[in-house]
Amino acid sequence: METEAFVRALGAEVRTAATVAQVKIGDLAEAVGVSRMSLTRYLNGEREMTVPTLCRIADVLGVSAATLIERATRRAEEDARPTAKVALALAAHETPNQGAAVRDKLDHEAEAPEPFYDGDEPA
User: Fold this and answer.
1) Alpha-carbon gap, residue 31 to 27, rounded angstroms
2) 46: which DSSP letter?
3) Hey, how many other C-beta atoms are within 10 angstroms of the C-beta on 66?
4) Gap between the Cα atoms of 106 and 29, Å rounded
5) Distance between CA atoms of 78 and 61, rounded to whole angstroms?
6) Is 39 exposed, middle or buried (0-12, 13-18, 19+ CB in 10 A)?
7) pLDDT at residue 69 in the model
8) How far is the C-alpha of 64 from the C-alpha of 56, rounded, in Å?
9) pLDDT at 117 (0 to 100)
10) Most buried residue, 1, 4, 17, 67, by CB count within 10 Å?
């Protein structure tokens, strides 16, 4: 995982935790002892947080620093995964002559989804 991706994800998790705790950014900055501008840079992923700053933020928000780190790690990993649209676009780009075959396959899957069996009927 890239450091920049983690820093952005950590900022997003802190922002989410502040929203959940109903703590305004200015109030959080004051309680933590950093300027509003510094806190904004942390939240936007423009600046790395020190461990003591993260711990103070976590205390004010009533969540553990470990929880914020775990959530940020998960978020950064999820953000790094390509979405289905991106994967499909990449596949179409890599195999341009197979576009019609891919479209036909997708159309067929959309028209004939797998039947659902609830367990009461034989498959």
Assistant:
1) 6
2) S
3) 11
4) 50
5) 24
6) buried
7) 96
8) 10
9) 62
10) 17
Measure the CA–CA gap between 104 and 70, rounded to whole angstroms: 41
How many DSSP H helices and E strands does the chain contain?
A: 7, 0
> What tokens does 118 get?
């609830």
DSSP state of 98: G
Query: How much is the pLDDT for 72?
Result: 95
The residues near 6 (Cβ < 8 Å, ≥ 6 apart) are 72, 73, 76
Which residue type sits at 53? T
pLDDT under 50 in the chain at which residues?
none
Cβ proximity of 25 and 18 under 8 Å? yes
**CB neighbourhood size of 102 (10 A):** 13
Residue 4: both structure tokens together: 């920049």
pLDDT reported for residue 97: 66
